[in-house]
Design a protein that fits this description.
The chain is an alpha/beta fold. The chain has helices spanning 41-48, 97-100, 141-146, 148-161, 178-190, 201-209, 223-230, 248-253, 276-281, 294-305, 322-330; strands spanning 2-6, 16-19, 29-38, 59-60, 64-72, 84-87, 90-91, 111-112, 124-128, 132-134, 169-172, 193-198, 214-217, 236-240, 255-263, 285-288, 313-318, 337-341. β12 (193-198), α6 and β13 (214-217) form a beta-alpha-beta unit. The chain starts with a strand and ends with a strand.
Amino acid sequence: MKACFFREHGGLDKIRHGDLPDPVPGPGEVRVRIRAGALNHLDLFVRNGIPGLTLAMPHVMGADGAGVVDLVGPGVTRVAPGDEVVLNPGINCGACEFCLRGEHSLCVSFHLLGEHVWGTFAGYVVAPEANAYPRPQGLTWEESAAFPLTFLTAWRMLVTKAKARPGESILILGIGGGVSLAALQIAKLLGLTVGVTSGSPDKLLRAKEMGAEFAIDHGAADFSRETRKITGKRGVDIVLDSVGKATWKRSIASLARGGRLLTCGATTGPDPEEDLARIFWNQLTVMGSTMGTHAEFSDLLRILEGGRIRPVVDSVFPLSETREALRRMEEKKQFGKIVIRAD
């Protein structure tokens, strides 16, 4: 099969496009002929090398993907060859204490397509049958590949973890990426007042066109001060910060008393300066979140089927140009998901 992969960690120059052996499904697994995959910041981290994560080389990136089942392993009953599916990237054991209570993303052996095992930037990918869901009607192949990781992450943070309620307010940092745009749509669906930040005036304008009530250029002003000014010194009920070190203290300062700070990543570093006094005095809650459960994925699919939210596709690249797609993400040019179309 054709695939995009690397044989050693490093920069864009390590990415290769070429032939790798077709994967073979084992018991309980399916093989999917990929029609489209989508980039995530995770792909950059994996390519650069994640401390403590040792990969068998060569390694195929790509957590998100949609395609057609073409082969099934022994014992598979949920799907059959010819089924059009979208993949939930999170793989769990199904037997640990967390899996048994339905908290699949807390699984002691939780891992992701494209991070720990071969991913979707290839002609074929193998995954557990439990991770293959019917492709949402009404979405293109590119849109189908664009939602799983980011929308599931945003859905769990806002719906399950923060329990966001109509009338509350949220500030979403770094609008334009997959999680932030998914969170914007989900927040509007839930009836929240939404603020966003970006260093790009164009991205701020587009976010307002999607329903954001206020937008802050974080390159021109301190977003925490601007947020308090906009909210009459109150602050917002929820801040979604996947930036980390560069924004953490200002995110805390943007919250109203009793507010919730959500994090699902740390693109600028995992060791920010803290403000413990403000956290305990204002009785703030910090919530970490990773991916989601199969139940949450099913809920999300029903919402997508209803057409109430829809992935934003920034651009589409052929598999052979995955390196250029990664370059676009590294340069932070995207507004929405960058999609890879299988050759």
